[in-house]
Amino acid sequence: MKRLLSAVILLILLASPAYARHYGCTSHLGGISGTDLDALDITGASDPNPNNLADGDTAQVAVLSGTTGTRYDYVFDADGTTAEDATYFTVIRPDDFATAGVWRLVGLPIQMLPATVARLTGTINADEITVFSDSNTLKALTGSEFKAAYSIGSLSALNAGTMTDGLYCTYTAGVGIVCNSTGGTGDITGILDDDSGDVPFLYQAWTAFGAADATPDVSAAEHYSTADTTTITGFDHGGSAITAGRRLRVRCDYATVFDLTSSEITAANRSTDYTCVVGTVLDFVYGTDQWYALNIPDAYQTLSSSGIVVNNSGSPLARSIANGDGITFTNGDGVAGNPTPSVAYPVLQSRTISDPADADDYNWFQAPEAITVSAVKCFAEGSTPSITADLQECDSAGANCATILSGAITCNGGWDAGTVSDTAIAANGTLRILLGAPSGTVTAVTVQVEGTR
After folding, report:
1. pTM of the predicted model, to two decimals?
2. Domains in the chain, please, with CATH?
């Protein structure tokens, strides 16, 4: 199963006298129901409470849409009792009041409303009635899926589509909220602790970010499962609310697989999914098409098949560091290997053979890695010395030899160079020296090979 999350894997544990733990989450369904907390793997899992959540643990769901942020509060009901109401007097419960091990939506307490609110507008017996103010919103849903612990009982005075001047909406502690359009009484009244009304209400806390903080940070959610796939989405259900320049940062506190083939952020998609190693930190900038690896743990890891890079140049490259292995780069085609240095390492090998004779041959050295030969030289010593030298490449066993020169070099009393016809020496290949036709007095001959690796 693929789970949808907006931003993933940062656990916020805040200790307080009232609650054991507090969780920060992002919503992919708008924050309307507890299903937004699926990231905590509570309901529907083989273990309904795998994280040992306690009665009264709280969670906060944050949603960002454009430059407006929305925050919803939940409390965990471990035992299916009403004990949570003592702390959150507007805890919202579905019809299954007795169900244990579920999240309950916490409403904005009526006592928190200002004495006046901006306006009350809505459609009776339809989808919703919404109360707006400068910084808070009450949203009432009449869908049958939810039933509020509290409801506003008398609604018939407000006709469909009617807008009531919010200057005449007031709240009286212990009594309720009263709104009317003229300053009189009677248009709409609501009494707290009356859950017998015809229209059930869900109250949700909304918080708007100010214009000075157009791109605020929002909470993130933790994905507990190690077996599922996490899909990266936008901060709203459509996946397109974040503007260019915003960053999505992912820290893998648990090993998991990220769906990078069908995420809602099209630019973030790659040809394959990405298996995230614990401790990895990834970064994605909205308005671009590139992931960055900000931190990779001390373990070998191939990232490039998902197009995750460590810099901004050329084809996607991925860096991984392992003990004793140095740094390994992987190119965009998923081929791993040592980095190619900007300047090739030079190779210089020289051997001096004393009292050489005709038809002498010697296994010289085995190439530890591929070598490109650029020059072969020799120097004969003695009285009017002259001798020929040939250089052959053999396999790792010293057999199947073939010359790498266009012809043997005649070595006299100075440095003489041959013509290299085969410059490529394979890794583990054996180089062999062949000597012949000495004349004069040859007391020694030196053979030298030059190249790069």
Report:
1. 0.31
2. 244-337 (no CATH), 346-452 (2.60.120)
